[in-house]
Amino acid sequence: MAENPFQFDPAELQEWQQRIEEANRYNIWCHCRTCHKEWIASTYVICSCGSKNVEHIACWQFPDD
Ligand SMILES: [Zn+2]
């Protein structure tokens, strides 16, 4: 009787999925080319200074090392 190490019980699976969702929600690195402000956002937003000249980089695109 082999146990599958990757099998979650439903509660664990749900918690794990929520963590993934949270990570995905706040993983856009934003950089304003106008005022050079940097922040992490959940969506593609304009800068608080009103500039739309904002660079958006999803965090998962950063190299790992
Ligand atoms: Zn700005």
Q: If you compute it from the alpha carbons, what radius of gyration comes out, rounded to the nearest whole angstrom?
A: 18 Å
β-strand amount: 15-25%
Small molecules (ligands, ions, cofactors) in the structure: zinc ion
What is the total tally of β strands?
A: 3
Q: Summarize model confidence as the mean pLDDT.
A: 83
Alpha carbon gap, first and last residue: 40 Å
Overall body shape? elongated
Strand order of the largest sheet: 2-1-3
Indicate the percent of residues in helices.
Answer: 10-25%
Low-confidence spans: none
Sheet with the most strands? Answer: 3 strands, antiparallel
Helix- and strand-based class?
A: alpha+beta
Q: What count of helical segments does DSSP give?
A: 1
Q: List SSEs in N-to-C order.
A: HEEE
